[in-house]
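Exercise (ungraded).
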Amino acid sequence: MSALTEPGVPGRVGESDSPLRRFLADFFESRVATAAFAVLLGIVFIALFAPWISPTNPYDLATVDILDNRLPPGSEGFTGQIFWLGTDGAGRDVLSAIFYGLRTSLAVGVMSGVIAMFIGSSIGLVAAYFGGRTDTLIMRVVDVQLSFPAILVALVLLALLGKGVDKIIIALVAVQWAYYARTVRASALVERSKEYVEAAACLALGHRRILFRHVLPNCLPPLIVVVTVQTAHAISLEATLSFLGIGLPITEPSLGLLIANGFEYMLSQKYWISIYPGIALLVTIVTINLVGDQLRDVLNPRLQR
Amino acid sequence: MSAFVIRRLMQSIAVVMVMSLIVFFGVNIVGDPVDMLINPEADQADIEAAIKALGLDRPAHEQYWYFLVNAFKGDLGSSFIFGQPALQLIVQRMPATLELAFSALFLSVLFGIPLGVYAGLRPDTLTAKTIMSGSILGFSLPTFWVGLMMIMVFAVMLGWLPSTGRGETVLLFGVPVSFLTLDGLRHLLLPAVNLALFKMSLVTRLARAGTREVVHQDYIKFARAKGLSPRRVVLVHVLKNIMIPVVTVIGLEFGGLIAFSVVTESVFAWPGMGKLIIESIQNLDRPVIVAYLMITVLMFVFINLVVDVLYSVLDPRVRLRDMRA
């Protein structure tokens, strides 16, 4: 995290002034960001431990009773349990379905984000480090891809590949890699001309070692911001595609699919089947974006106080 | 100048070629082209006749050539579901999508610019802050979710507006349009607003940023000193100068409106191209999928080409930088 230290701070840095601490102090200075971060932690906790904290297992046919279908929020089920957020058309507890749906949505969003980050930043690093023709070619491809809207690229891939968790992750990676490549290239171009890279080259270190051990860590701050923003974007895009019925299969219900399932009941005033998964999706996207905004402010050296 | 246009044109042709390769080999490698392109309910003799007709008994590069030649002739196969040529199906749906996209564009400019200019002129007022927070929401809320909420509030709870379909249409130059009838307008309003929200946020932010920059310029001070009314300063001098970035972005983003109409059309059951492609993907109606992809890619490449060329006309730096690269 050496990039987080302000350059030119003379003398010894006291313990209370360590880069990580300063970063945390700056981050939690904003009340909105702190609240968003807390809510986000809660969402991640729910997603990780969904099978253990859900009131019921909505996909266990033995415990789901069709007689409980379309109950409004807060009503008591056939077997005496209370459905705080009501039940859907098949008698499943909406609250539990949301917990499981968050798990799928977050898993797909984070996984595609991480894979795209690895692929995209490697390509961006290579472009910046080698320059010349390699750089021109790579950046042309990035420009062409970014000139197509994300939803269109995903639509092309899903039309050719079909449904499935792996397929949608491929589509989301294909949509996102170019953003990472562009971000990392921009900061790596600046780093490349610095003396420590020259020094590393003089020590006859290999290209790979220089790139990944020396250049990449210094490109991290903008990369972290892009990761948060892109993850929110991926979750939103996955929900959209699943809502349209071309994303995840019914066996892996994400929030988008839950909302789609409730859509038909919405027209007959049974709003809760769709609206609560929707609120969960919104809260997730908005909190990630708020955290990302604060990270951008804290990590941007131009705005450093 | 012409060298720049030719280079960009060649690049566009390359993109179309690469896309046709991806689509063609996607169809051929991911699945068996026989059951992708031929109606699965056909009998053996028909299948063999079709294999011959489509040239599927030939090597891959020859097949690709046939695909290209047929595509050039406008023959992209026939839909399994509708039994019509795929291209014809898409062209029939195009007016509905274009009407929706243009209405959304119109709304986003109509509301986006005044909101943005206001927020730029009085950045510290509560109204301005509300506008800016609203634009952040417009950016980050998923379109389909906002569409559902609009249906719930305006169609189900209040019962003011219909939630599906295009309503009554009239022919304008032989093309059916809804915006000329009252019933059609009622049907158009919700989907158009839904599609417009994202672009409206974008236009608002651009207009605000432009206004904040422009109001500190000398010519604005001069116009004020000359004693022009505030209304004239804003409507003539500020507005004219913030339009340049706004117009460019609107041009660039028009393609985005057509792509995102896929979502809005599905939510509001608007009978356009976007709804057709989603249904075709669900029904595995492959000829329509291939035709839609090729047409949309062509459309996008064309829009990008026009925007690039216009850019280079407006801003010579773009052209020069490209020459050096």
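Further reading is listed at the end of the chapter. For now, observe: Chain A has eleven helices and two strands. The radius of gyration of chain A is 23 Å.
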